[in-house]
Amino acid sequence: MTATPRRKLIEVSLPLEAINAEASREKSIRHGHPSGLHQYWARRPLAAARAVLFAQLVDDPSSHPDEFPTTAAQDGERARLHALLEQLVLWQNSNNESLLRQARAEIRKSNDGKLPAILDPFAGGGAIPLEAQRLGLEAHASDLNPLAVLINKALIEIPPKFAGLSPVFPGAASTRNGWSRVDGFAEDVRRYGDWMLDRAEKQIGSQYPRAVAPDGTEHTVIAWLWARAINCPSPACGISTPLVKSWWLSKRKGQEAFLSPTVVDDESVPGGRRVAFSISYDMTAAPSAGDDGTVGRKGAKCVACETAIPLAHVRSEAQAGRMAAQLTTVVAEGERRRLYLEPTAEHLAAASVARPNNVPIGSLPPHSLSPNSNQTVRIYGFEEFVDLFTPRQLVALTTLSDLVTEVRAKILHDGLAIGLPRGGRLEGGGDGADAYADAVATILAFAIDKQADLGNALCRWEPNAQCPRQLFARQNIPMVWDYAESNPFSSSSGSFKVIISGIEKALRSPAFGASNVPAGPVVAADAAARDYDGVVVSTDPPYYDNIGYSDLSDFFYIWLRRSLESVYPSLFATMLVPKAEELVANPHRMGREADAFFIRGFNSVFQRIRAGYEGDDDRLLTVYYAYKQQESDAEGTTSSGWHTLLDGLVNAGWIITATWPMRTETSSRLIASGANALASSIVLACRPRGADAPTATRRSFVAELKSELPEALRTLIQGSIAPVDLAQAAIGPGISVFSRYSRVREADGSDMSVRDALLLINSTLDEVIGEQESDFDPDTRFAVKWYRQYGWIQENSGIADQLARSSDTSIGALERGGIFEAKGGRARLLSPTQLENEWDIGADEHVSVWEATVRLAAVMAKHGADEVAGLLPLVQTRVSLDAVKELGFLLFHEAEKKRDTKDALLFNGLVSAWGDVNEQAQKHAGSLRSVQQAFDFDEEEG
């Protein structure tokens, strides 16, 4: 083992706010994101994965005291690495080769000139392997789930094989000079996708007629809107009544439209009456919240007689096969708007097709697709996955699926025709024409999966966007009463053309296929049984019962297997996705043994990884933990899930050296969402603990905490971290002390639990933060004590006088300092709203750290960062900016303890933007050089 393991950047400090801001921004990128290739659940943001890998592999400056002998030197080098990392995570820099070269150089410098291989044994949606490859590292990926394996092959295995290759589609290569990266591959995906679409339309296009508008013009249909219907249970009525969630068709301003149901006589139907629909644009008759639709969580009502219909009756009718569907609207492409038309006999007849015989086989599980839910659509009569589709949708999907085999043969023919060697198949490692045909066919099969996601009988119509919504907006299959049947042959949302276009954009995205580094093996493997020698592991394991990946994946697997079984015979050897060894606590399958199964499996995996790291203390492990908001109880402490994770890692022989909250929400939104602002995930950095690790007593453990936490906290605050994240990040240095011991003994000789260790860490953190007060000026010390006790409210002046004396100040000095007022026997701190207006710093005779901090926070909230940046150069002449930042952290901490969301947002807003504000302030400082010396914002003040 290495005598003194080198600490990595992730174990000391991260520009966390910049990383989280970019992860949040990434959520809004809808087109051109690699995730556009195929649906998967709970993907990590690419920005977060990239940052974690870089910081996991690069040494912290404190590991090189010979090169950086002083704290100031280490801080400066750390700031340089932070600056690089802040640029590296930006979406627009995903393919910035200059930055990526710098990142690789830093990784090599910290790893004896080498670029380590990275493995994610729970590869899932592929964010970690993709980002490893982007950084020039050999990316290895494995998963038990064949869908995850195939997604990772598409992300990291296929692109390097065919990077720079011209398209093989006849005539495509000559349309431009040179084909870089995977542009040629993307071109072929589009052209062969269009070829498939053209063949499919010739075969079944007659089932998708055009719509005729009232003026006689013909228009392509975007979607047919249907409502499920059952017979009214009232003996006096019995009409077939539609089950509609909402009557709205369009809520777009100026284009509002909604359904208006009426009961009409019709001798051709049982009972002689039916519900007809007209399209209304009269906003005076628009549906209100109280009368919008006929069905909700509590039941339904009949359109004709308004009889209440219990959901139990609806389910009974559905299970008996007596739930029908009624066509309500035809939505067509108009001139810059949607046309909403009443259905005709032609469109009803076109939809009346027989279910094809060659549909894929696969039953919905007898339980919910989500381990932590009992909701299942089976209670409405859906038993097979193909029951989720209309017969016409199944005709379209089977037709497209059959064409995958045909198009693969055409791609092979065209590839050989331009001189590509045939080579071996893709599954066997080939890279010639056969493998290329397999690769393009794989992506086209992904397009069919996306068509299934947007083309089933559980897709809602979205009246704001005026388009069908995909099935998997959530991690389950919910019941949908009124659904949109999209037209695969239109040019709008839900069509195969738009799907192929979206995949092409993902392939051409700068975030996709940025590296030509060949991937390591991408295989189906059990994480508890595979080998970990010689690789660095970064992984996002399933956690408890969050998501039932295998059950969800079956929806797509049955179509992939139908299209690609001959391409990947070993991957699709089973009828459905394997489930027995999936590391998920699924009570539907395991009952009361679910938790024990998960804990055993989790511990087994990380014990095996630990064995693979034996003899190499410099290799770090990073683990993502998917925090759930409900894992906080009334007292604000986390539930057993978090403790179980930490217990498992500690017992498997790991020292947990850092815990970083990673978010896809801004820190302000996180605070505003509730008292317990939890991250969406936490990244833990771990290193192997030696077999000869010593034991410790409770007393010595607490002593070490108090010795090490202050410096760790200083380093965290020195970095770009929001106050909302400080408490979670500070657990890392604390749990590091605990986990470096083989055991920590309580006074009675028992072993200290992780839960008790966390309580001690949090208690010590409170003490350390509180001790910062002693470094502040007297007025600030007084103000902190007053705020802690009374906030901004008035209290007795006698109490104020007593507290002021004990803080070595006076009420008079506090009033002259502009932070306090006392009159009529009452006293109070001046609130931020009283300090948010214009501030003449030069004329202010006495400026305390408190006044500067509260004024700057108030100005930030009211006027923004530019105004604060303009004040900082002069503020620095009066107080230490480091002290202002530290007080901002302290006041956020106090506001959180008081559950004061408004104040927490105020102080978090100032400190979160501190780095940007300082950068802007340097520009303002330049304009002051005519009256005073320029400021060095990197220099510590005394």
Commentary on this structure:
This protein is of the alpha+beta class and 942 residues long. Helices cover 41% and strands 13% of the residues. The chain contains 28 helices and 27 strands. Strands 18-2-1-19-20-22-21 form a 7-stranded mixed beta sheet, sandwiched between helices. Strands 5, 6, 13, 14 and 17 form a 5-stranded antiparallel beta sheet that branches. Helix 7 packs across helix 10 (391-417). The protein is globular.
Number of helices: 28
Order of adjacent strands in the largest pleated sheet = 18-2-1-19-20-22-21
Strand content: 5-15%
Mean pLDDT score: 88
Which stretches are low in confidence, meaning pLDDT under 50 for 5 or more residues running? 628-639, 666-679, 928-942
Question: Which structural class fits the helix and strand makeup?
Answer: alpha+beta
Give the N-to-C terminal Cα separation. 42 Å
For the biggest sheet, the summary is: 7 strands, mixed
Radius of gyration: 32 Å
Number of strands: 27
Categorize the overall geometry: globular
Helix content: 40-55%
Blueprint (SSEs and pairs):
Blueprint (H helix, E strand, L loop, with lengths): L15 H11 L19 H12 L13 H18 L8 H13 L8 E3 L6 H8 L4 E5 L2 H17 L20 H22 L6 E2 L5 E2 L1 E11 L8 E4 L4 E3 L6 E9 L7 E8 L14 E2 L2 E3 L6 E2 L1 H9 L4 E10 L4 E4 L3 H7 L39 H27 L15 H22 L6 E2 L4 E2 L13 E5 L9 H13 L13 E3 L11 E4 L9 H16 L22 H4 L3 H19 L8 E5 L14 H12 L2 E9 L4 H6 L8 E8 L6 E3 H21 L4 H17 L3 E3 L8 H18 L6 H13 L4 E2 H10 L4 H6 L3 E4 L2 E4 L19 H15 L1 H11 L5 H17 L3 H12 L1 H13 L16
Helix pairs in contact: 1-2, 2-5, 3-4, 6-11, 7-10, 7-11, 7-12, 10-11, 10-13, 11-12, 11-13, 15-16, 18-19, 18-20, 19-20, 19-26, 21-22, 24-25, 24-26, 24-27, 25-28, 26-27
